[in-house]
Amino acid sequence: MNTRNEHLWVGIDVGKGHHWAVAINSAGEAVFSRKIPNDETEILKLIATACEALRARPAHHLRPGPEREPGR
Question: What does the pLDDT read at residue 10?
Answer without folding.
Answer: 93
